[in-house]
Specification:
The protein contains one helix and 23 strands. It has 287 residues and is mainly β. The protein has one domain: 5 Propeller (Tachylectin-2, Chain A), CATH 2.115.10.20. The radius of gyration is 17 Å and the shape is globular. InterPro entries: GH43_arabinanases (IPR050727), Glyco_hydro_43 (IPR006710), Glyco_hydro_43_endo_a_Ara-ase (IPR016840), Glyco_hydro_beta-prop_sf (IPR023296). Keywords: Glycosidase, Hydrolase.
Amino acid sequence: MTGDTYAHDPSYIQEGSGTRWVFSTGQGIQVHWSADGKAWNLGIQVFASEPAWWAQQVPNHAKLDVWAPDIFYYNGKYYLYYSISSFGSQNSAIGLVTATSITKGDWVDQGMVLKSTTSSSYNAIDPNLFADKNGNLYMSFGSWWNGIYVTAIDKSTMKPTGNSYRIATKSGGIEGSSVVYNSSTGYYYLFVSIGTCCQGVNSTYKIAVGRSTSVTGPYLDKSGVDMKNGGGTVMDSGNGAWKGPGGQDIAGTNIIIRHAYSVAENGAAHMLISDLQWDSSGWPYYS
């Protein structure tokens, strides 16, 4: 890829048959765009100023610092979920902004989706929207503490309804979940980032995966270990050029985007995009 590819926690979508968009962590939600998926340009951030509810619900967050956005297209509209927090804290919230067109950028704040405090079992960051095999909507979320959770999403409000279910834990860190259903294999796949991020070339992030026949688990790795009990098969642990891959997002069932830290640039975070493939046993891989 060429152009501006600096990004952290990227989420990818193609608008119709045209422009590819990537939303990522940064001031007001960072935006990149590309006409061909190869040459990338920095766009205009989603939020020029903060909605009033941010400071009310998460008063200790850094000004306009928005984490791990997730873009989802449903019923003729684009839903962009995101999180605000402060590093290492459970005082967090997931918010939602919508648009009829990413190109137009007619974003409308839809308020808070979910909140956590120091008394919560989970941390309300890293949202990921997905549909089950019947078209019902769900959101996975969570970071460290008691791990990754999943909750049903109401199709009218596009916000959680009912209980949240824990589906993965990992000592030493787990976050950045992405769930996708592959109709060819009949499984739901839970992709997570394990280890620690945000330390440049010293980051220990790795991308791991498990699968389940049910949205709420159990998600088992290749060895049959439940991800709720620390399981997870590592797909990518980095290489000599790229350290700490993670913050991944799955587009459809055939594209994976993630960030990694460039050794050549002393730990600068770049987005990397690959074709996601599936082996004969129904497990994902990429090169």
